[in-house]
Amino acid sequence: MKKVLTLLMALLLAGPVAAQDGPLRITITDGVIEPITFAAPVFQAENAEAAQVVNNLNRMVAQDLSGTGLFREIPASAFISQITSFSQPIAFADWRAINAQALVTGAVAVNGNQMTVKFRLYDVYSGQELGGGLQLAGTTTGWRRMGHKVADAVYSRITGEGGYFDSRVVYVAESGPKDNRQMRLAVMDFDGENTQYLTDSSAIVLAPRFSPTGDRVLYTSYESGFPRINLLNVANVGRQQLQTAPGEMAFSPRFSRDGGSVIYSLSNGGNTDIFRSDLASGQYTRLTSAPSIETAPSLSPDGTQIVFESDRSGTQQLYIMSANGGEARRISFGEGRYSTPVWSPRGDLVAFTKQNAGRFHIGVMRTDGSEERLLTASFLDEGPTWSPNGRVIMFSRETQGESGTSSLYSIDISGRNLKAVPVQGAASDPSWGPLQP
Amino acid sequence: MNMMTKATMLLLVLGTAACTNPDRLGGAGGAGAGGAAADGGLAGSASDPTSPAYFNQAIGDRVLFAVDTSTLTPEGQRILDGQAQWLLTNADYRAVVEGHADEQGTREYNIALGARRANAVREYLVSRGVPTARLEVISYGKLRPIEVCSNEACYSQNRRAVTVLSFSAITS
């Protein structure tokens, strides 16, 4: 698929190329990346009301793109020509002269609380438009989402892969001291904006997980006095306790790919195993039956396999089994203990937490266990979650000592671009939802 | 000198109280099972052998574990022998055994590990004659540490299973 896209792009963009070798394209599977340079002149305000939002919208797009580490913005102070109309011919030589490889132009019109945004993306060196012009409609209060959508389209056209900017993250918002931590569920945009709290802090809540469409969240709650799995509707914040197989404690839930069933851990008599329950009927299936700890199950994108952690070998290691249970094969063999495996949306990688020699790491390996790479190292990193396009991993990082607090970080799967996610207050256990419709 | 000793002892007592308190019924910020049933009167006086305060302090309400294990130590077994005897004598009480872990480990694994520890205590108490029906288990994993430093001095206190009493009449 990727090859076809690249070839298609190459055909579309064939023509004289100056400093650029080949079409405007990042092959983002490469380990080393020279960021693509782009210019994003302030969008055109098509009426007076739009004048207040054009700058914000334009900054949002630029910030999203630069934030990936795959793009670098050429500042407006370097511009030779200005864009004064959305339909004007582009003076490509002026943009080439300042080494902008891509040019994003846009126009905004506001009518009451409605807003339309148009944008175009140009490959400066080939002097051609990349993809057609696109128009988006929305509300003025949703201007951030419009900006994210434009950035997603630009990202997608240049990389050939889906974007991740118009997406949300559900997580545990934390407050209070280490020995009396208050925890509540919250949801935010991927960049830390638009925080909304989904539960209060009267009970411990843990490890929320978005449904494949982002409309529901599964999480572990101590509301009943014991850890049980709750299902929460994001739109109306209604919640109910999930009917699981009988057991003393239920935790570590994740949706199946069709959103119709849940895989989770159940603890009974000190033993923890993995189960699946159908959401509609409550019917359950036991997937593991070993005296060891089996937890943190995560399904492959095609729904046929489950990666999970088990200490059956004596220490925590990663295993893969059929989605229906049965024999499992171990995939982790390096030094240390491996946990919280999460299958990537692309299907080729498993992200995990690794504990070795007193340090914690977030890492990735192929699903056969090969090509293990550790992306981070700290006193305590845990709980990776994938961006919708499988390009970025978000995780929790906790600092050491009595004032230790948890916060969210993201990192590119190349191991570059480690960033703190600007969340209000302390935060843990992120789950990255899908691109919004 | 005498003053000094007394002051030290007082500090020790206060220190113990501060450590134990978060795990008492109702002490743990709404987190514990049966938290609603808590009241200050449950503990009673530590000098009264039928009181929960005696159970908590004279017998000991908790046992500690080595890293990543749920094996009861000889010291742990001695404490649990005392707990079992007390529970058999004071049949009006039920107990929830809370399993905990230190922060070296992921949240999910530590919940499973805490479940192992709580269950090890329950099984031991049952083996000493306490009816299973009077014992429940819960695991908090690493979510409810009582000591907050990030070294073994604190970790060793956090790797624990605590037997938390409640009246039989007050069920969760």
Can you count the beta strands of chain B? 4
The CATH class of the largest domain in chain A, by name, is Mainly Beta
| Fold-level CATH name of the largest domain in chain A | Neuraminidase
List the domain count of chain A as a whole number: 2
Shape of chain B: globular
Structural class of chain B: alpha+beta
Number of domains of chain B: 1
Detailed description of the structure:
- The complex is a heterodimer of chains A (437) and B (172).
- With 437 residues, chain A is mostly beta strands.
- Chain A has 4 helices and 31 strands.
- In chain A, the strands form 7 sheets. In chain A, strands 1, 2, 3, 4, 5, 6 and 7 form a 7-stranded mixed sheet that branches. In chain A, strands 10-9-8-31 form a 4-stranded antiparallel sheet, with no helix packed on it. Chain A has a 4-stranded antiparallel sheet with strand order 11-12-13-14, with no helix packed on it.
- Mean pLDDT of chain A is 92; it is low at 1-21.
- In chain B, helix 4 links the parallel strand 2 (93-100) and strand 3 (135-141).
- Residues 1-40 of chain B have low confidence and may be disordered.
- In chain B, helix 3 packs across helix 4.
- The interface between A and B is large, with 47 and 41 residues.
Secondary structure: elements and pairs:
The complex is a heterodimer of chains A (437) and B (172).
Chain A: H1 2-12, E1 36-39, E2 44-45, H2 51-67, E3 71-73, H3 92-97, E4 102-111, E5 114-123, E6 128-129, E7 134-139, H4 143-159, E8 167-175, E9 182-189, E10 196-197, E11 205-210, E12 216-221, E13 228-233, E14 239-241, E15 249-255, E16 261-268, E17 271-278, E18 284-286, E19 294-299, E20 305-310, E21 317-322, E22 325-330, E23 337-343, E24 349-356, E25 359-366, E26 373-374, E27 381-386, E28 392-398, E29 406-412, E30 419-420, E31 426-435
Parallel strand pairs in A: 1-3, 1-4, 2-4
Antiparallel strand pairs in A: 4-5, 5-6, 5-7, 8-9, 8-31, 9-10, 11-12, 12-13, 13-14, 15-16, 16-17, 17-18, 19-20, 20-21, 21-22, 23-24, 24-25, 25-26, 27-28, 28-29, 29-30
Helix pairs in contact in A: 2-4
Chain B: H1 2-20, H2 52-60, E1 62-64, H3 74-89, E2 93-100, H4 107-127, E3 135-141, H5 152-158, E4 160-167
Parallel strand pairs in B: 2-3
Antiparallel strand pairs in B: 1-4, 2-4
